[in-house]
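Researcher: Batch entry, complex prediction.
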Amino acid sequence: MAQTICVGVIGMGWMGQVHSRSYNVIKDRFYDEGLLPKLVICSDNVEARAKEAAERFGFEQYTTNWQEVVNHPDVQIINVATPNGLHHEINRAIAKAGKAINCEKPVGKNPDETISSYEDAKAAGVVTFVGFNYRWAPMVQYAKQLVEAGELGEITHYRGRFLNGYAGDPNNFLSWRFLSEQGLGTLGDLMSHAIDMAHLINGGIDTLVGDKETFITQRPIPTPGVGTHYDKATGKEPKGDVTNEDYVGALVRFKNGARGTLEACRVINGAKCDLSFEIHGTKGAIKWNMEQMNELQFQQKMGDNPAQDGYKTLLSGPAHPYHARFNPGWGVNIGFDDLKVIEAYNFLKSYATGEQREPSFKAAYDVAQVQKAIMRSWESAGWETVQY
Amino acid sequence: MAQTICVGVIGMGWMGQVHSRSYNVIKDRFYDEGLLPKLVICSDNVEARAKEAAERFGFEQYTTNWQEVVNHPDVQIINVATPNGLHHEINRAIAKAGKAINCEKPVGKNPDETISSYEDAKAAGVVTFVGFNYRWAPMVQYAKQLVEAGELGEITHYRGRFLNGYAGDPNNFLSWRFLSEQGLGTLGDLMSHAIDMAHLINGGIDTLVGDKETFITQRPIPTPGVGTHYDKATGKEPKGDVTNEDYVGALVRFKNGARGTLEACRVINGAKCDLSFEIHGTKGAIKWNMEQMNELQFQQKMGDNPAQDGYKTLLSGPAHPYHARFNPGWGVNIGFDDLKVIEAYNFLKSYATGEQREPSFKAAYDVAQVQKAIMRSWESAGWETVQY
Amino acid sequence: MAQTICVGVIGMGWMGQVHSRSYNVIKDRFYDEGLLPKLVICSDNVEARAKEAAERFGFEQYTTNWQEVVNHPDVQIINVATPNGLHHEINRAIAKAGKAINCEKPVGKNPDETISSYEDAKAAGVVTFVGFNYRWAPMVQYAKQLVEAGELGEITHYRGRFLNGYAGDPNNFLSWRFLSEQGLGTLGDLMSHAIDMAHLINGGIDTLVGDKETFITQRPIPTPGVGTHYDKATGKEPKGDVTNEDYVGALVRFKNGARGTLEACRVINGAKCDLSFEIHGTKGAIKWNMEQMNELQFQQKMGDNPAQDGYKTLLSGPAHPYHARFNPGWGVNIGFDDLKVIEAYNFLKSYATGEQREPSFKAAYDVAQVQKAIMRSWESAGWETVQY
Amino acid sequence: MAQTICVGVIGMGWMGQVHSRSYNVIKDRFYDEGLLPKLVICSDNVEARAKEAAERFGFEQYTTNWQEVVNHPDVQIINVATPNGLHHEINRAIAKAGKAINCEKPVGKNPDETISSYEDAKAAGVVTFVGFNYRWAPMVQYAKQLVEAGELGEITHYRGRFLNGYAGDPNNFLSWRFLSEQGLGTLGDLMSHAIDMAHLINGGIDTLVGDKETFITQRPIPTPGVGTHYDKATGKEPKGDVTNEDYVGALVRFKNGARGTLEACRVINGAKCDLSFEIHGTKGAIKWNMEQMNELQFQQKMGDNPAQDGYKTLLSGPAHPYHARFNPGWGVNIGFDDLKVIEAYNFLKSYATGEQREPSFKAAYDVAQVQKAIMRSWESAGWETVQY
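Model: Structure tokens for the complex:
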């Protein structure tokens, strides 16, 4: 039976828009599942943005007051896509209202807030979800299947990273992203994806030792109202200090015995969206990179025929998880937004069935614990144990 | 001012669905353009399919009678996505009704029907469009810009092809796709994309010489009602003859003096969706392949610094045409369905403004003339001139 | 038992040097084979070159008169690496002298001369060899094994080409390479490699239709004594007409039923040494490119597991033919000169055992017959049958 | 003026052979340099190997007693290619004899021996060289030039690694390579290359923190006389403990402020000879991998034209360092052995001119200091400073 689920969305920037448009195609993409999200109300503190979103996506109402979304009597599930600093307070209010939450990552502006949000939701017994969207690439899901099926044997190495240059220009303004009082830098942002991917593919981390660096130490101070981290300064503005990290690196020992590294940087050159991993086991190996999200490199040891031992390039197609929801063709690419549709489906399905799927706030909590261990390691200059 | 445009869709298989879902996101993806397509009525000869489509995409009505779509008083524009053999009759009816047409390729089951549809539409003065969707990849559009801006110098070579294995299994049923009385084989299907791409990137063809082959000469005869070319036989069915071509190849001389090849095959191994081109000029070269649709290989001669002469791999991003309509990220892939959205936008824009954009039925006519020249060459075993 | 074989080399340009240095490492690289080539005499019409070669490689004597090499009483085998126009006369003299010949390609400046050289050698009963060196890449030899073992099933397509830009600068002098009275252009030079590779991998050609073009129609006339095709003009020299072809293309039908294309160009941009082939069969496919000569792309159909169907990248290693002669490491590249060592070994082995290996002048004859068919097709503007 | 230099080689396994054959082509490859190495005497404790080497490479004498090589009155320079455990004693004797030394890496079986060898040679004032051969790839040398010329701007990241599976089979015998009393494991072997490469490309390391692991903890005990690490056991042999490390990882902070990682493993799957690096700066980035040693990935920021920002693939050619010594062709690969020829040339040139080139024992000393810091970090579980 088809089930209508009433939705509110808070924060109508890029991610709020992506979440909204994802709901609008669920009925089509997952037709046989009978999930019918209904866009009830959206909010943004900039009224024009809220209004435009309502028009674009068909929300019945809009508001500049997020509490109205939380308290709307019809709304059953709420997506949170505000700046990171507001997540914690909003999540708490939603949990209190007993509604399901899909919060963009990071769930809190720092690990403690994330942990707190997790505990709030757990106490309230609500369904949760977090926007670790790269998980949903069919080739990532397929990699997970291969690892779980033992196709790589016992895992010996895992390397994960997220190299991105979105903040690579020193003339990007000193937005909230660069200020420690408003949250972590790369560790909270890019690294959270790399950690979640490691958890998905290779499981928990036992101990680690981390490093960090800030390469661009000062940035132009924005005039109130303008100057997000995407805008560029004229060069004549006064400058202020960047107070959180551009780069994070870690050596990690996984619970399964594998060794490896995690790295992320927001000011790197060359890489565009290089969220990638390599995993090696006693029987095979896999490589994947978000920049070629429709491909997977897969190797299996050919003991008796080493002449045919090499990485195979697999192209996403209907035999891989979820791909056929989008098209029936081999080598016919799906896009990033499609990953958010899969995410929305899994959140809705969790809500509709009451069976919590992952990544929930528990997944965010796990990432937060790794982040905390990395932060402790920055202080101790030594190895730290992750406290899941 | 926003403009509501009433839409009918005929034929609700994969392509009919893709066209319908494209309309549903136009308001969002091209928000500033004020185009508001409204899904009025769809049809399919299988009622369940029409009904499901109406539900999935929100058509107000559905029918099993395509004439109802054509004659619906509200409907202004109509998409045709039936089996190829019906295109001609339907296109003629739509043109007669004075409505705009977006017909999937091939416009006719053979070049003459395509030419006839073009003439019908021209006589009726209606806006037309054809589903040469691969054109719309941002990296293809960018390649076109580079060529037009002279970044490659004078063009010397162009190689285009479409290698696909969708019919590679000899146990695929002998559907209408394999019967000459129902239309061309690979020349009408895959090759039409390769020819259109050549026209887009490198312009018109002067003369050519072609070849063809059928590699799988017999296929199982389907029981009525089952057995499309995607289904597999048990192996016990009686077999019938394949009467159109699996493979087409041609040597071509372009009007601009470039030399090259065109090839297509529907039964090839290895390639998945290898619609690709290479273009070389006196100053540079470009390579593109649909299997990595978000990438472009671009080389420019480095006369004074040969140590730095090589192909650069560009990843689709917001500085490339249309990409920012889908996401603001570098290296954040868009998908195949997004190309159909761009196509729908350009068709709507043509209709709304009355300024015919390409690819219209004229583009299909041009492809048909190349197909006719290839067919003449099969007969003459010699070079033929394209009669645009 | 080790066998000393006395060698003469005629023509000490790049290729003459490569041949000479190959002989010097045979004892080492093929130690167990007991082949001991001894460099007796070399010649070049430029004395300084002959003298330098004698010093570099340890020839006992040098001369400016190639007849001395032919007639030297000790010399048993002779390598011919002069400009193409002299090959025929020299080959004839060597055959008459009853000595073995390893001639660089093309064996004749045109196909008729090649055929004549073949017949001379056959009449004389001497061992012959030709410098189709790209054959010897371990990954090419391995590809041949895979095809012969039926790993690709029945072959349906073969595409071969040699794209190179060595003559891409219009200021390259009008050397002998660009004058028809001194021989063919690209058809004789680059295309001969592409044809030989097709013969090796996919066997004989039944019929074909060809095209040609000259893109750079005039070049600066060199002052006698300077100005090879590698030198550049000042731009003030008078210009003369290029009278042979820059580009050759052909559609081909192979004897085994496969269809495909052959192409070569000497003035192309982007490609550096793109001698490459793709071969597709009913069970698999292979791609190889000289620019990555240590790699092979190998696909096999995964009927029951399409999720794992893709091209595998194999890196040359000790399990592939000849690789272990050069190093015992996987992924440890060998180089182009090593291919000439393998060639020299096979020539020596042919001479030592009297069992003619390939590519002999027969292979050159076969290539010449394809060239002749292409030339006839230029005239007839239609399909021609190859007369092997 | 040509200069004859008398050579001795100690240890005639793979590397001793490669060194010997390199000398034999110096006169040819570096003809204009006038360096004439003469192979006087070689030694190996297995007489048959010494004898074979003398025959293959043309040594005047051979012996089973390495002291004879050291003390031979004619010998001026000596290459050391024995098992690692003997290097120190032999190097000391050579230094004492006042002769030049080219020792394979690692110079000592552990860092202290390497340091000691460095000091011995320094005290004796002899020219030294070490077999960090991957340095000599033209594309690596070119990368170094680009970095030094500031083409990447200020360096922010460097990642180096050497992933190899040569010991990946648990049935490889427990040879000296796996026993700590005979030296380090991966840290001494593969990692030394990765560290030297980092020094070459990015300079000195300030501090680091390291990790290690042994994945295959037991291996079959070899019968005396058979069973190197390349041989395979029957599976019935008794097993002994592997007492040194399979894997080493480190986080590093370079003196120039860059952050990064170093990793090496000898039992990994998938990688064949993945000695690779990535370096990122404020203006550009470079990637290189020994598996494709003839290629370089080079990116430069395109501030004003982000649509054209991407990695360019450069193919080794005559405009890159040393390539033209081997062939004049673009995209015409050179091989691994050619790198050893370049190494031999630089050693000979150092000896002939008295101007010590790098990598000398000083480079090995520098690597040893990094190794020592990593070993200290294993103990301290914290960051350590490198004591160059």
